[in-house]
Design brief:
alpha+beta; two-stranded antiparallel ribbon
Length: 92
């Protein structure tokens, strides 16, 4: 599903529009959203804004929201637990 929003929005109007969209989706039985992308062009008056990374100074145009706190994986035995791709699994 694609949601198209035309026109310009103050940051508060955008927040109100997103709230309206979410309430409408909820009213229609939507309980989860997956793979959400929002494309926008941030402005301050007539000037389109661009941003740089405060640590590297490199320009960027993608912000990533990591979502809610990820579920912690609990283990009951030290013999079984999470592994990472770059680790040697020890499996022969």
């Amino acid at each position: 599903m694609r949601i198209r929003m035309s026109g310009s929005y103050s940051i508060y109007d955008f927040q109100d529009a997103m709230d309206c969209i979410i309430q409408t989706l909820r009213l229609n039985g939507v309980r989860e959203l997956r793979s959400v992308n929002i494309y926008l062009r941030p402005h301050d008056g007539d000037k389109e804004l661009s941003f740089t990374d405060q640590e590297t100074g490199a320009p960027f145009n993608i912000l990533k929201y990591g979502g809610r706190k990820e579920r912690e994986f609990r283990v009951i035995s030290p013999r079984f637990g999470p592994a990472h791709e770059d680790e040697d699994s020890g499996i022969k």
